[in-house]
Amino acid sequence: MLSEQTREIVKQTVPVLEQHGTEITKVFYTRMFEAHPELLNIFNKSNQKQGKQQTALAQTVLAAAKHIDNLGAIVPNVNQIAHKHRALQVKEEHYPIVGEYLLKAIKEVLGDAATDEIMNAWEEAYGEIASVFISMEKEMYEKAAWDGFQLFKITNILNQGTTMKSFEVEPEVALEIPELAAGQYITVRVKPENDENLALRHYSLYSVENDGTLKFAVKKEGTGEKKGIVSHELHDNTSIGDSIEISAPAGDFKVNSEAGKELLLLSSGAGVTPMLAMLEDEAKKGRQVHFVHVNESEADVPFKTELTEINEKYDNVDVTYHLKLRDGYLTSDSLQHWINENTDIYLCGGILFMDTIFDEFAKLNISQSDVNFEPFGPKMSITNV
Ligand code: HEM
């Protein structure tokens, strides 16, 4: 339990750290990877280059520090991050390393302003915050369907739209695929040629059909310096019959509305993936589902065959493509057609799309807390904490 004085110091110094946040986290990652290059086998290098993970970690530590009197307030966000940590195999023994280099970075950037008293307070606070993550992740490791990364054989690959491919894999080792939940993802680990490090990425399941396989979809991300290492490896250098490493399914994005509620499943781009799994599952249950997918043009829409089939098969489902080149941006005027007081909203896509949709929802008096959402990117960067 932190002393009253420690908590006061932490809360008072949050604004200074916020001011220097980007600098501190840059120094933190540089020094940490110099001392522990093995961590480059866990961290995502594309995110590092774009500074995404830097911001996510810094924001989370600072958000947690603001709530140091009541860390329970950040638990819903920690839960989502903890799932990702478990899927990436972040372990308890990694926390002191992150703590050490975070504190060293604060000292290096703030210099004399970071007195011993301030540094001691932050050391204690980090320990407290880390213990919330560690205990939540411990439970997740115990419940995981298998240990670490295991080998799977690719049994099918299909093009989906212009930028995505779907993959079907089955275990090469003796392990049982657990009951899967729509909204979950798996984590793929590859070792690209000409790269000394392993690379990891999460991919959502597009179907949770229980037939002994895992089915996930991969969007080919970026180009040149900004290319997504895993997605390029999977798209360009992987064929049917190859083996890839996958860790056990994870994630807390699932349909949890009561029977009788209508659903709006709203996605853009690769965000369609978990939504398709949810659609398939909920359509069977007879629930009224409005499925709206935003993309550039009809040629870009992934899983058109599956979506057409479901749309034709179930009277309780309507599938709409909102095509930006044809229909412009999706605005509150269109959104209101699919929403009434009995609608539960599920939203998935990139950070930019989410920001825009939340602005449109605000015009309909719908706030973030009314929406179940999963951004393809750090959730804390758009969550109001
Ligand atoms: C991802 C926070 C400790 C490795 C993340 C994300 C956040 C975060 C907010 C982004 C999640 C998302 O995409 O939604 C924290 C906090 C920590 C902590 C507050 C300490 C209290 C650690 C440790 C490790 C680690 C000890 C391992 C050494 C990662 C990795 C990712 C990640 C590899 C995936 C993103 C990427 O590769 O760039 N963490 N984390 N984290 N974290 Fe942590």
Automatic annotation (TrEMBL):
Stretches that traverse the bilayer: none
Domain Globin span(s) in chain numbering: 1-138
Occurrences of domain FAD-binding FR-type (ranges): 144-256
Organism, scientific name: Mammaliicoccus lentus (Staphylococcus lentus)
Alphabetical keyword list: Heme, Iron, Metal-binding, Oxygen transport, Transport
Pfam family, one: FAD_binding_6
Matching PROSITE patterns: FAD_FR, GLOBIN
Heme in keyword set: yes
PANTHER family on file: FLAVOHEMOPROTEIN
Protein name as annotated: Flavohemoprotein
InterPro entries membership: Cbr1-like_FAD-bd_dom, FAD-bd_FR_type, Globin, OxRdtase_FAD/NAD-bd
Family recorded in the similarity comment: Belongs to the globin family.
